[in-house]
Amino acid sequence: MKPVVPILILCAVLLAACVANRNHGLQSAGPARPGEDIYRTDCARCHGPAGEGVAGKADEPLYGERSVESLAKYIARTMPEDKPGTCIGPDADAVATYIHSSFYSPQARSRNQPAKIDLVRLTNRQYRESVADLISSFRPVKQATQSGGLEAEYFQSEGMNKKKQSVLKRRDRTVDFDYKEGSPIEGITADQFSIVWNGSLRVPDSGEYQFRVTTPNGARLYLNTDLAAGDANKRDDSDARRQPATVDLWVSSGGAVREGLAQVSLLGGRSYPLRLDYFKFKEKSASLKFEWKPPQGPWSVVPVEVLSPESSSSTAVVTTVFPADDGSKGYERGTSISKAWLEATTKAAVEAAGLVEARLNSLAGTKENATNRIEAWQQFCATFAERAFRRPLTPELRTIVVDQQFTAGLEPEIAIKRSVILTLTSPRFLYPELGDTDDYQVASRLSLALWDSLPDEALSAAARRGELNTAEQVREHAHRLMQDPRARAKLREFFHQWLSFEEAGDIAKDPIAYPGFDAGMVADLRNSLDRFVDEVIWSERSDYRQLLLADYLYLNPRLARYYGADVPAVDEFVAVKFAADQRAGIFTHPFLLATFSYHRSSSPIHRGVFLTRNVLGRFLKPPPLAIEFMDDRFDPSLSMREKVTELTGKPACMGCHATINPLGFSLEHYDAVGRFRTEDNHKPIDAASDYTAPDGQVFKLRGPRDLAEHAASNPEARAGFVRQLFQHSIKQAPAAYGTNTLKQLDATFATSETHVRNLLVEIALTAALPDAIRETTTKVAAGKVNPPETQPCAGL
To answer: Which three-class secondary structure string do you get for 736-757?
Structure first.
């Protein structure tokens, strides 16, 4: 992502050109010189023949996104810096045209340095997802599909957790009970009883989760274990004794309240089997609380929306820590190779081999002491490698990866681990693009685009049959893959990136200025924004524009009270409608407004930068001189808008802030926690500004509704969204698949009434079957279009 040229560099270029004009006797009133002549003679010595910059003079390259007309107007109005207005007319037009067409514009840069498809390895996320699905592919996979709490069974006990009689079965929404000295239900004595909760935990995001069980009695938590995944009706206390618990508080403490903690790595978009055993035996009181701390969240009781009464199969999750993926292009991609990464892949392969060994008979379908066990294990290793490499094994590969590992005198269990490690450290697994461009490659690209994982059996079977040759065939499978929770999890991750969720990791506000705005409030706001995005994207219309234009928020009672809305009748999140001039989609969601604000005040600069880069898809470079905003250095009577205007008023700043400030000022009706206001520092809010688009067109922004309507109808903003979704999904630049790829996908997106899920299908199709982008690939639900013919795909 290449941002706009800093104003000082542009000033220097045009100052040199115009001063040179005077020195050569070429006033603007005289005959115009060709733009290339002006540049070569008067500018190249400082900025290089192709605008690449010259060390010690003008180090940074000349590039940006202004149109020729906008650039020429800017030159005529402000250049040269010491005598603006003397480089005007034909001279300004000529030098602007030359700079723009030669190296300044995105189109010129794309032409000068054509994008290519890079050979990339699996990203960290792709590695974990692929290993999890690879191991799971050897046994039936069951995932919970609904939320609503856990199935609970209440027992009358006789002795320490000896379940004498089942008294009641019911569904409990959460596990947070304080029975004090009484009985949990009628028909059970208060002195001794047992309860078992069974079901699944539906995890929305990948990461490290912490769990806490608090009780004065006995309790065990089993999460993502074979015990938890087993048949609830066949489990007994002997099962529990044979497997280690995730949290174990089984031994009584004599009635003292204890906490049991565990940290578990989980992958988003999956459900994990859960069992919680509890008993009371003659302690004075009885209570139990089951809590969690999700990534970037506070401790809270595990909520009903992530608990399911349905069972799930366990998932093998690799926990090895990898070095961070390369994010220099604005999205994570597997281009960085280092000693630390190579060591991590080896360590992860060893860990995965241990996970396989622990489940070996189940995965290979063998039993202890079976006469054909060794042959079955060899076949398991061959199938394991075939699925990892995403294509059938050649005889030579089978010999290396499988047969040579089962040598005479080597323990079979060791041979299996060696084969698994060799498979998972092979370039054929780590670099998915290695190999022939055939149906198997198409299947691999499609599953990586939509799941960050391996092809499933249906997709692999289609590859074996040679049924992934046309756009229609691939599109059909893409739509099928989109129905899987793994696609939902990947799309959710994109929106977290697009909306800069990571910036909210340390939101903290002045408790005096904003009482009640605590970590729990931040977690609720994050949940609110997730629900809003999910509701829009997974609705039938899946309309990107509604992300910008919607006039409602998802609020629970606590948020509703804080943000001045009618309190929902139920203790859950519901959609609450606001006046259209008060709320406009993501622009006015309190989570983002609070994220891009200061500790005590709003921040038009942070909000404007976020909107410029992420939502409007425009380019910005880091400022040439970072200036810290220090509130105490301003006149205390100034409003925030007045402070920002004073801080950024210099010409060196306004090259970028002419774009940033109007966007940020349009949101000044919202304080540092996103509440609507009419005054700032006892002054009426002024949210109106003139915003200049890249083509030079000026828009009047009077508040968030104007901003939302401009963004929803703006082709550059829409194309920016398409580009960012492509990069996140494919880990490559769109232009690498043809110079017209982005234009074609954007045309498809517009014709489909900006249907996001269908856009992702078309993106996956473009990467999976590049030749298909010459066909009519826009047969989406909402319409058809004949796109322009694209160029051949570079690098394939």
So the answer is: HHCCCHHHHHHHHHHHCCCEHH
